Amino acid sequence: MQLLKMMGFAWNVVCRALASVVAALMAVTGVVAATAVTWNRTAGVDEPAVPLSVNYHFTRQCNYKCGFCFHTAKTSFVLPLDEAKRGLTMLAEAGMKKLNFSGGEPFVRDGGRFMGELIKYCKTELRWAGISISIVSNGSLIQEKWMRQYGEHVDMLAVSCDSFNADTNRTIGRQQGARTDHVAKLYQVREWCGQYKIAFKINTVVNTYNIDELFVEHIDRLRPVRWKVFQCLLLEGENAGEGALRNAARFYVTDEQFDGFLRRHAEVQTLVPETNDAMRDSYLILDEYMRFLNCRNGKKEPSASLLDVGVQHALRGSGFDEQAFLERGGVYLWSKQQMSEAELEW
Ligand code: SF4
After folding, report:
1. What are the residue boundaries of the Radical SAM core domain, all occurrences included (predicted)?
2. Which of 73, 128, 167, 277 has CA 20 to 30 A from 235's CA?
3. CB of 78 within 8 A of CB of 109?
4. Half-sphere exposure (CA, 13 Å, Cβ side) for 9?
């Protein structure tokens, strides 16, 4: 028994050392690997995962009203900038290598300045951590001035687009007011990404209203490095059930319908599909209070804030499934330094 314990301890030490080496390599090369996230599981010890890839939903506010939105505007709270920086420093110290800013709409806050300052902080003050930065935005509030000021620090910018048809976007709620031209702005942001050397990505939620649409021609023209295609997800308390601000039931598509959409777009090389099952526990979601959101029971249950209890303690309440994260391809080329010029140009 004693021998087994000692072997377990030795293995744990080896794994920790391996994780440090991998983290250091990743910091230097920008190349990501799965080892850092799995070492503790391999060791068979009861320790939380390294928060390798974190999605920070720092605001729930948004200027759009998508009917299926599953992170709705329940509060208008945003942390003070210094507190957000403190939390990001803690995450960097715990091994974070990728930080994705999301919302709500991240450009709602100060026209993107709040997020821009956090991004700059990660790439300058926390440079030692080698964190790759991505953003998910609806694109509508992005200004060229912001791209000029902060673009050099952004590795990847994803713009959400569920349709290239103005009527469908209106039906879904992907617009602000009657005059918004979501598609025109998408093309504009794409052009800026080429100009300011940011990898461009498109996110699409497949739902009842776009299920029959063919995206191939526009995706060919926009040339995203990734086209992430999600099956519309229902989450209790967000877009389904009691207390929800949305009722997304009318948007829901079955697995078969989702498969059909994927088959019709099989020729698109950059398409990365994500079913409801793949999505559910495979994201580390940090909310506006820096609490991890546990989606294991089909709703979002918050952990304690990492600002109060530390990263390791908060992670225990995250419900994060690192195996599911790896299986859905959560680890890929995050750093634009690793991408070819051609991928970053228009
Ligand atoms: S743009 Fe995103 S955050 Fe805003 S309402 Fe739509 S899905 Fe929700």
Report:
1. 48-271
2. 167
3. yes
4. 6
